[in-house]
Amino acid sequence: MAEAAAIREVLSKGLRSSAFVLGGAITAVFVFVAVVAIVWTPFSPTAMNIPDRLQPPSWTHWFGTDQFGRDVFSMIMKGSHNSVLVAVVAVGIGMGLGVPLGAAAAARRGWIDEIVMRFSDFAFAFPFLLSAVMITALFGPGAVNSIIAIGIFNIPVFARLTRGSGLSVWQRDYVMAARAAGKGAARITAEHILPNIASVLIVQATIQFALAILGEAALSYLGLGTQPPQPSWGKMLNEAQTMAAIAPWLVIFPGLAIVFTVLGLNLFGDGLRDVLDPRLRRAR
């Protein structure tokens, strides 16, 4: 009952935030399209139909067709599914490994803290895209290697955030009382630390989700991400470069898909941060 009341309170506060509502709506549409694309698209996103090549937007082909006669709207739908898959798994890798590392660093300090922080410093010394390009170039292009490359970058992000947020909670009175009661570091982390920093991690996850989608699009644009015949927004932009003058819809629609998806996730994350941390909302 308490959890249900807390969820209702969050939704009530969220409905009063324009960023939360607008970002949530855009994100919901994006996720809905990605889920629907698993089982249905208006046309096959990989089927070529040369007689219908470079058709402008119409009632039959809402976003037109490309140089091979493929339906652009269907390709964007399928591309959203691939983007969600890459982003969810990559952010999951980052949280699954980064949060325990950061929690251990905050709880144990000492040499564990030093190792985690030096690993984070080493990872942040290389720009994200450069690191992803290096990994995919070494192990070959493909969606799996893109997920690994993006996931590795997310590990130090969540490790540092968990450590920093956890250290402040470790100084709270109720944590000191738990330690005085004989609770171990692992139990305190599970019962007190992680629940109290969960909101921070959730907000960061939405931001990293948007960055993962951008990263996947960038790698696909460079030919190192999702490989043909599977559609990808970045790959669509790459293939449309030489067609921009005669078929601008090939550039416009994939570009808008990336822009609105990332914008929606950023707005949703910003609104969610305001809802989960009232101090930030009052400060604005």
Largest sheet: none
Write down the secondary-structure element order: HHHHHHHHHHH
Strand elements, count: 0
Q: How much helical structure, as a percent, in the residues?
A: over 70%
Q: Per DSSP, what share of the residues sits in E-state strands of 2 or more residues?
A: under 5%
Notes on the protein architecture:
- The two termini are 32 Å apart.
- The chain has eleven helices and no strands.
- The longest helix has 37 residues, at 72-108.
- With 284 residues, the protein is mainly α.
- The radius of gyration is 22 Å and the shape is elongated.
- Helix content is 75%, strand content 0%.
- The protein has helices spanning 2-14, 18-39, 72-108, 110-124, 128-139, 143-170, 173-180, 185-221, 233-240, 249-276, 278-283.
Keywords:
single chain; 284 residues; mainly alpha; 75% helix
How do you describe this structure in short?
75% of the residues lie in helices and 0% in strands. With 284 residues, the chain is mainly α.
Please specify the SSE layout and strand pairing:
Blueprint lengths: L1 H13 L3 H22 L32 H37 L1 H15 L3 H12 L3 H28 L2 H8 L4 H37 L11 H8 L8 H28 L1 H6 L1
Helix pairs in contact: 2-3, 2-10, 3-4, 3-6, 3-8, 3-10, 4-6, 5-6, 6-8, 7-8, 8-9, 8-10, 9-10
